[in-house]
Amino acid sequence: MQAWYKGAIWLWLLAPFSALFALISGGRRALFAWGLKAQHKTPVPVIVVGNLTVGGNGKTPVVVWLVEWLREQGYHPGVISRGYGGKSAHYPLLLTPETQAEQAGDEPVLIYRRTGCPVVVGPKRAEAAALLASVGADIIVSDDGLQHYALARDIELVVVDGKRRFGNGHLLPMGPLREGLWRLNTVDAVINNGGPAQAGEFLMTLTPGALTSIDAPPTEPAPCAPQTVHALAGIGHPPRFFATLEQLGFVLEQQVALADHKAVASEQLNHLQSRPLLITEKDAVKWPGGHANTWYLPVDAQLPSAFEQMLLTRLKERENGD
């Protein structure tokens, strides 16, 4: 909701509802803290990658980075997710090569196809984590779920959009916050996506990969800057993707921004046929077809060595029972 980031005065009309949200969410959090609601503790470590705001902040690249990094440390990681946007006949759902975004959601399918690690989706993360542990995962990465206190966790990471930050700083629905900014003081690390990073934050940059054709093999040569193209993105903050393409030297004739997780309808492509079409990897996993020259741009997270050292320290403390 753009009003959250533009200081709209009318949002004060929603202040009573934000107060009610704070009361309910705070009460629920207290029930877990006091032991009146039970937390599920898995036999393996759990790393939660979440955020404080509604909308995409760049969690998926962090999850992919973690899976690859954990493998380098000798772990066999798996990922759990709510599977937002997916509709499966049964949960928890263990993804297979045949699983589509319509069943599991776009982000879990992207993570599974990119990393090949076991991925389980389901609204009850404790059940998803149990299934993941049963198939051999010795460490679990939770894609989102910072506020899902029913699952105990060992490490909490919060991803912050470096440009948009926290909008007006208010709780839902008056602002974009799921929890107050005080929560940042309780997590293990704050990852700043794109900067500028503030004191205590780890700066993450996203490095674009090579354009990849939706068709295999491609029917057209890959677009090259400074070629004029069309661009489409159905992510949390489409302007970030468009800016990346412009930084790579492409000239964007048309920019189509869709809501996060929103699948494009084939008829929306009718006016984009005149140029190559560049989309995100997240859009690619649910691509309907309908454009003969479509390419997606994968991105890879880059995180500092200090962040890696922090993770190693936290994992060692967990192994030692600290």
UniProtKB/TrEMBL annotation:
<keyword id="KW-0444">Lipid biosynthesis</keyword>
<comment type="pathway">
    <text>Glycolipid biosynthesis; lipid IV(A) biosynthesis; lipid IV(A) from (3R)-3-hydroxytetradecanoyl-[acyl-carrier-protein] and UDP-N-acetyl-alpha-D-glucosamine: step 6/6.</text>
</comment>
<comment type="function">
    <text>Transfers the gamma-phosphate of ATP to the 4'-position of a tetraacyldisaccharide 1-phosphate intermediate (termed DS-1-P) to form tetraacyldisaccharide 1,4'-bis-phosphate (lipid IVA).</text>
</comment>
<keyword id="KW-0443">Lipid metabolism</keyword>
<keyword id="KW-0067">ATP-binding</keyword>
<protein>
    <recommendedName>
        <fullName>Tetraacyldisaccharide 4'-kinase</fullName>
        <ecNumber>2.7.1.130</ecNumber>
    </recommendedName>
</protein>
<keyword id="KW-0441">Lipid A biosynthesis</keyword>
<comment type="similarity">
    <text>Belongs to the LpxK family.</text>
</comment>
<keyword id="KW-0547">Nucleotide-binding</keyword>
<feature type="binding site">
    <location>
        <begin position="53"/>
        <end position="60"/>
    </location>
    <ligand>
        <name>ATP</name>
    </ligand>
</feature>
<keyword id="KW-0808">Transferase</keyword>
<dbReference type="InterPro" id="IPR003758">
    <property type="entry name" value="LpxK"/>
</dbReference>
<dbReference type="GO" id="GO:0009029">
    <property type="term" value="F:lipid-A 4'-kinase activity"/>
</dbReference>
<keyword id="KW-0418">Kinase</keyword>
<dbReference type="InterPro" id="IPR027417">
    <property type="entry name" value="P-loop_NTPase"/>
</dbReference>
<dbReference type="Pfam" id="PF02606">
    <property type="entry name" value="LpxK"/>
</dbReference>
